């Protein structure tokens, strides 16, 4: 663990070195590409402002992740037991994923306003599909060798679902959630780009318009840290349920 | 208990193997012996699913032990043993719990009652699965290679246990190993790629040559 953190720090320092060298060597103006030290200075000098916007984006990501995961999981549970329902719902699910969230953003703004609701809807939409698809895959993981044995046990359908099929699907649902956690910030940031008054996406747009590229980079760094933190928490929580597996 | 009339054993996309006509009288215990791939397990599953019009099973109370133990890995040994009752939502009564404990003792796993089954060895898992099939107390018991993963002495103990607990049940035990067709079973039927033959008795397989002839191939 310590060794891998050490490697990561060395790698980051190496990349920052290359970045700084390029800026210095080609004499790139700071409003095109600020040097790393300038971004780091901005990170500290504007930390209060960055933190405020990070909280807004964090709330959007976490609440969207939560809502999308719950809706995705419930949908998969609802249709997971019926091949007919799955056949009917799958095209709709695929369409919900195929439609780029960028295309829906203006509509969501129109319907839900410029506040939290539209960003929540965007993030929920982006999280919903990976969780639903992964949970459905989990329901299909019922081992073939178990089918005959379980049939002779004459189980009640509901009990079989709650005691066997659902726990079997949980590790798959959580792997979907891990994927969702890595894409959830996209929903929040795109929502902020289209229309908002706070959040890291909003800050990026504002600083871009004012030529404050260092602040834009600083917002990007904070967003990356936030995304990694959220993913790590989801990853750690989801690993606790790995024992619900046939392996 | 079971009537099979002109049932054609096939694998998907392949020619028909044997055509089976067979009736099993209630209360008899029979071994179905055959080389690997002749369709023993396929026949057993056809009986179990009871969907083919050529097969008539006169009971709904069937216990089945598949080749793979089919245990829920995150539940305990005793839960897996009583899984049928749990999944049917039956309230656990003291006599059932006692019977489960006794069975665990008989299969040599009483010390592991509260262990999760994903921590057990292959042989231990097979014994839990056998215990579950016995716990079901069904009229028709179908066992698919129940002793395959057990060592010789455990195999004998488990055969004795089956002999004790399944004495008045209808049993069909599928195996490729003639040593499993031990004396607790009434007789042995042999399934080859062409037909179902029998009944045979243990004495009929007193030497390897007789067994090879019965199986119509190498051991």
What does this structure look like?
The complex is a heterodimer of chains A (247) and B (219). Chain A has 247 residues and is an all-alpha fold. Chain A is elongated, with a radius of gyration of 22 Å. Chain B is α/β, with parallel strands linked by helices and 219 residues long. Chain B has two domains: 143 residues, Rossmann fold (3-Layer(aba) Sandwich); 64 residues, no CATH class. Chain B contains seven helices and nine strands. In chain B, β8 and β9 form a beta hairpin. Chain B is globular, with a radius of gyration of 18 Å. The interface between A and B is medium-sized, with 21 and 26 residues.
Give the arrangement of secondary structure elements.
The complex is a heterodimer of chains A (247) and B (219).
Chain A: H1 2-26, H2 36-45, H3 47-80, H4 83-98, H5 101-112, H6 116-139, H7 144-152, H8 157-194, H9 200-209, H10 213-239
Helix pairs in contact in A: 2-10, 3-6, 3-8, 3-9, 3-10, 4-6, 5-6, 5-8, 6-8, 8-9, 8-10, 9-10
Chain B: E1 2-8, E2 19-24, E3 29-33, H1 40-49, E4 55-57, E5 62-65, H2 77-81, H3 83-88, H4 94-106, H5 122-135, E6 140-144, H6 152-165, E7 170-175, E8 187-191, E9 196-200, H7 208-215
Parallel strand pairs in B: 3-7, 3-8, 5-6, 6-7
Antiparallel strand pairs in B: 1-2, 1-4, 8-9
Helix pairs in contact in B: 4-5
């Amino acid at each position: 663990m310590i060794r891998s953190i050490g490697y990561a720090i060395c790698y980051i320092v190496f990349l920052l070195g290359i970045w700084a060298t390029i800026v210095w060597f080609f004499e790139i103006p700071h409003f095109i590409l600020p040097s790393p030290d300038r971004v780091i200075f901005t990170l500290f000098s504007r930390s209060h402002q960055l933190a405020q916007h990070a909280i807004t984006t964090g709330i959007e990501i976490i609440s969207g992740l939560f809502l999308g995961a719950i809706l995705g999981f419930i949908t998969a549970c609802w249709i997971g037991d019926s091949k007919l329902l799955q056949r009917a719902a799958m095209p709709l699910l695929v369409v919900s994923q195929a439609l780029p969230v960028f295309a829906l953003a203006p509509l969501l703004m129109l319907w839900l306003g410029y506040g939290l609701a539209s960003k929540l809807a965007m993030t929920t939409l982006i999280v919903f599909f990976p969780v639903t698809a992964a949970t459905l895959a989990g329901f299909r993981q019922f081992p073939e060798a178990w089918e005959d044995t379980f049939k002779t046990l004459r189980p009640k359908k509901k009990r079989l679902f709650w005691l066997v099929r659902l726990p079997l699907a949980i590790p798959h649902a959580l792997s979907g959630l891990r994927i969702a956690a890595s894409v959830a910030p996209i929903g929040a940031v795109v929502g902020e780009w289209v229309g908002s008054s706070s959040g890291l996406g909003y800050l990026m747009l504002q600083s871009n318009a004012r030529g404050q590229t260092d602040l834009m980079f600083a917002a990007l760094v904070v967003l990356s840290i936030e995304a990694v933190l959220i993913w790590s928490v989801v990853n750690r929580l989801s690993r606790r349920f790995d024992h619900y597996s046939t392996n | 208990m079971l009537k099979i009339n002109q049932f054609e054993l096939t694998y998907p996309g392949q020619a028909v193997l044997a055509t089976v006509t067979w009736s099993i009288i209630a209360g008899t215990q029979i071994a179905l012996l055959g080389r690997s791939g002749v369709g023993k397990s396929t026949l057993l599953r056809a009986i179990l699913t009871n969907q083919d019009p050529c097969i008539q099973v006169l009971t709904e109370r069937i216990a089945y032990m598949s080749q793979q133990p089919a245990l829920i890995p995150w539940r305990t040994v005793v839960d897996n043993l009583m899984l049928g009752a749990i999944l049917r939502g039956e309230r656990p009564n003291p006599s059932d719990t006692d019977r489960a404990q006794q069975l665990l003792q008989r299969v040599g796993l009483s010390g592991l009652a509260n262990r999760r089954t994903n921590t057990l060895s292959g042989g231990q898992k097979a014994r839990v699965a056998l215990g579950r099939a016995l716990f079901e107390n069904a009229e028709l018991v179908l066992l698919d290679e129940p002793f395959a993963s057990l060592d010789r002495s455990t195999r004998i103990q488990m055969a004795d246990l089956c002999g004790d607990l399944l004495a008045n049940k209808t049993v069909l035990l599928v195996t490729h190993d003639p040593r499993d067709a031990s004396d607790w079973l009434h007789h042995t039927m042999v399934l080859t790629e062409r037909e179902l033959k029998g009944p045979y008795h243990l004495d009929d397989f007193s030497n390897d040559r007789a067994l090879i002839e019965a199986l119509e191939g190498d051991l």
